[in-house]
Design a protein that fits this description.
Radius of gyration: 18 Å
Helix content: 40-55%
Oligomer: single chain
Number of helices: 9
Shape: globular
Number of domains: 2
CATH architecture of the largest domain: 3-Layer(aba) Sandwich
CATH topology of the largest domain: Rossmann fold
CATH class of the largest domain: Alpha Beta
Largest sheet: 6 strands, parallel
Order of helices and strands: EEHHHHHHEHEHEHEEEE
CATH superfamily of the largest domain: HAD superfamily/HAD-like
Strand content: 15-25%
Distance between the termini: 15 Å
Strand order of the largest sheet: 4-3-2-5-6-7
Length: 241
């Protein structure tokens, strides 16, 4: 069944929605894990790294925590798949450089890129809201197998500039920043808690369910659902796509 929405913008989750969670867990996580120590020792003076290190120390309640303890904490958070902002910041720095060097190429499901290009060409604004940092999102979309997809995207949001993904207030911040009424926004995600929060903020929400993804068996509660982006059509300014 095809789902139809009359909206001005689509906001995209990444893991499990546009892209395979397995790629992030099996490729990107080990890549960052192997480079935390080098980053902390060689780039501690960089403002972004220093800010993240200070946030880790604050979380630990230890303002003197050395780099070894910080690295151990980052790896522990990685094992827990904890959406900690300083972890995501440091991963973003590492991944951005990996993508720039050509060590990494991002993953997108086959149905996603064509849908994004079609929606964008028809005047639909596209945004990203992911627990990964804005820097990581930028590198991800710029380094796809289909080329640089960043020109399709109007804005990037993470847990630092928008807030936690399961809190309705975060979606209110995005709507305000984008200058779009909540009822004119559609959020696509595989996580029911995020879909609940978006709906509570007045957005439309569709659960994306792809076999093999962590939340596939759990389902998306009472939200509309689609197995791929090509099962969704959008009307905006009188045209249907």
């Amino acid at each position: 069944m095809t789902l139809h929405y009359d909206v001005d913008a689509v906001v995209l989750d990444i893991e499990g929605t546009t892209s395979a969670t397995g790629f992030v867990v099996d490729v990107l996580y080990p890549y960052s894990r192997s480079r935390f120590a080098e980053l902390l020792s060689e780039r501690a003076g960089d403002p972004e790294v220093a800010r993240a290190v200070a946030q880790v120390r604050e979380e630990l309640g230890d303002p003197t925590a050395d780099h070894a303890r910080i690295e151990k904490t980052l790896n522990s958070w990685l094992d827990e798949d904890r959406k900690a902002s300083p972890l995501k910041t440091l991963q973003g720095v590492i991944w951005s450089e990996g993508f720039a060097r050509g060590d990494l190429v991002s993953h997108f499901y086959d149905d996603v890129v064509q849908a994004l290009r079609t929606w964008h060409a028809a005047g639909v604004r596209l945004y990203v809201y992911s627990s990964g940092s804005v820097a990581a999102q930028r590198a991800w979309f710029a380094s796809s197998p289909a080329g640089d997809l960043l020109p399709l995207v109007s804005g990037l949001y993470d847990t630092e500039n928008a807030g936690p993904k399961q809190e309705p207030e975060s979606y209110g911040r995005i709507a305000g920043a984008a200058g779009i009424a909540p009822e004119r926004l559609l959020f696509l995600s595989d996580r029911p808690g995020e879909l609940d929060a978006a709906r509570a903020a007045g957005w439309h929400a569709v659960g994306i369910r792809r076999p093999g993804e962590p939340y596939y068996a759990q389902g998306v509660g009472d939200h509309a659902q689609a197995g791929a982006f090509d099962e969704i059509t959008i009307s905006t300014t009188g045209s249907t796509i």
